[in-house]
Amino acid sequence: MATEPLTQNPAVDGSELIRFDHVTKRFGDNTVLDNLDFTVASGKHVTLIGPSGSGKTTILRLLMTLLKPEEGTIMVDGDYLTHEEKNGKLVPAGEKHTREVRKKIGMVFQQFNLFPNMRVLRNITEAPVHVLGMSKDEAEERARGLLDLVGLGDKYDAYPTQLSGGQQQRVAIARALAMRPQVLLLDEVTSALDPELVAGVLDVLRDLAHTTDITMLCVTHEMNFARDISDDVLMFDAGRVIESGPPEKIFSEPEHERTREFLSAVL
Amino acid sequence: MTWNWDVARDFLPELLDGLLITLQATALGSVLAFALGLVWALALRSPTRFVRWPVGVFVEFIRNTPLLVQLFFFYWVLPSWDIKFSALTTGVIALGLHYSTYVAEVYRAGIDGVPVGQWEAATALNMARGRTWFVVILPQAIRRVVPALGNYVIAMLKDSPMIALIGVTDMLQKARSEGATSFQYIEPYTMVGIAFILISYPASLLMRALERRLGH
Fold first, then answer.
1. Which of A104, A256, B107, B125 sees the fewest Cβ atoms within 10 Å?
2. Number of structural domains chain B divides into
3. Residue B125 is nearest to which of A66, A116, A179, comparing CB atoms?
4. Where in chain B does DSSP place strands (E)?
5. How many CA atoms lie within 13 A of A175 on its CB side?
């Protein structure tokens, strides 16, 4: 495939927090991301949309270091995520460097992925205590605050399996926030939920988007939610950004034929 | 030959002494097997081939040679290298080492059964690898395999009479001594058999119930 310039920078104001440079990700013969460039400015809420298999989730998983790109570099807040500089040369990042940069990123998963062997409070305090070195008392106080924020102040003592899917996902959001990430990655966070539980989770995220300056990168099929919280929407197709802009523009006057097709299928 | 209750009564204290040794050997052997099994299971997942490979060969070697041969090897050969243990300790080491190779396989299955999302969540929380193993993965993995581990404890209990052959005074050895001195065989050996079934059958029922509760 040719590599002509792709989209213009979707977020031009604010300092650049995330940068993908010529990132290619393949699974076997399948090129999921093809020489991808894009940046996200600090504090922006960016939604990735597009047909399944277009590489949206792969982007989040690359940022979370759950995957490694075959080519290209990813930078977070001015540091290489995938690489590190040694003697002026760029080499694949070691574990220590990865953990240092990864501190800035948090993620909420489609399947919640709470630790079923720990109570809700411990799910939230485990990493702040043992990764950030916070005192247990402080971590628990903050965890209770976060549980209040997601409307589950009374569930601190429950085990994850005793909660509904929607409640588990709200705990997962609290758990991610407890690490004070600069970027929150949301990977189809309502896709595994029963329809009546979706609204509760989206409300929490909407509050978060409107009341904090946390940067959000969101993969979702909830177009109304995307319209509501996004500063920018990136339309993906076949591993590339084919169109981007503010949600009013993308949802109301999409320029690209593929975007129109996609939106008419999901809206 | 007819059953003589007097012989049975006389042998009972001996049997209970032997039972204590049998249980002790099984309990210590199990602890050793659980600990060593974990070492093997983790080593077999090491990113370095130079750890994986030798451990793999060693584990296969132990698993595919008879326990009795290993027992005799430890008892007769180790002292000639100036490694000396009591008969009971030698028995515990042989039982524990032999069963650790099966336990490693049980742990492996348990670890494989933990959803990959648990690893991913731990990565997303920037948890250290060791911490992820010990507070996230292993507690879930081991919980799943408790019944399988229990079944190996029962199997070890039933293999434990082999240590009588290196002179440990377990139940079997007590019965052998009784036979050798009084020429009474039917009562001691029958009672040893009954003692085993009284322990291992309820234990295996318990493991089956545990399996059901854990939803296997």
1. A256
2. 1
3. A179
4. none
5. 32
CATH number for the domain harbouring residue B127: 1.10.3720.10
When CB atoms are compared, the residue of B121, B126, B143 closest to A99 is B126
Interchain contact A235–B (C-beta under 8 A): no
Cα–Cα–Cα angle for A31, A32, A35, nearest 5°?
75
- Do B127 and A127 lie within an 8 Å CB cutoff? yes
pLDDT of residue B2: 84
Provide the residue range defining the domain that includes B175. 5-213
Contact B125 A126 (CB under 8 A): yes
Averaged over A30-43, what is the pLDDT? 90
- Looking at the domain A43-61+104-266, which fold is it? Rossmann fold (3.40.50)
User: Measuring CA to CA, which residue among A139, A114, A118, A143 is closest to residue A129?
Assistant: A139
**Residue numbers in B near A173 (CB within 8 A):** none
Q: Which residues of A fall within a CB distance of 8 Å from B136?
A: 115, 117
**Which tens digits make up the pLDDT trace of B162-208?**
999 998 888 888 888 888 888 888 888 998 999 889 999 998 899 88
Is B120 in contact with A105 (Cβ distance < 8 A)?
Answer: no
- A-B CB pairs within 8 A amount to 59
Question: How far does CA B142 lie from the centroid of its chain?
Answer: 16
Separation of alpha carbons B70 and B83, rounded Å:
15
Q: Give contacts of B139 with chain A, Cβ < 8 Å.
A: 117
The residue extents of the domains of chain A are 43-61+104-266
CB contact under 8 A, B124 and A131: no
Taking the C-alpha atoms of residue A131 and residue A144, their distance in angstroms, rounded to an integer, is 19
Query: Which residue, among B118, B126, B131, B137, would best test binding to A if mutated, counting the most A CBs under 10 Å from its CB?
Result: B126
